[in-house]
Amino acid sequence: MRRLQQRIRDLEAELIRLQATNDALAAQTRDEALSRMQEREPALT
Predict the structure, then answer these.
(1) Domain boundaries, the chain
(2) 0.70 exceeded by pTM
């Protein structure tokens, strides 16, 4: 039973780490997309 509880704690810790990594990557992607949008030249009208 203790091994199962430890495994659950390990998996929860890994989940938290992966969520933090995902959040950081999502923020970076948003920042890069905004930067690219600002670098574009205006469309011809």
Answers:
(1) 1-26
(2) no
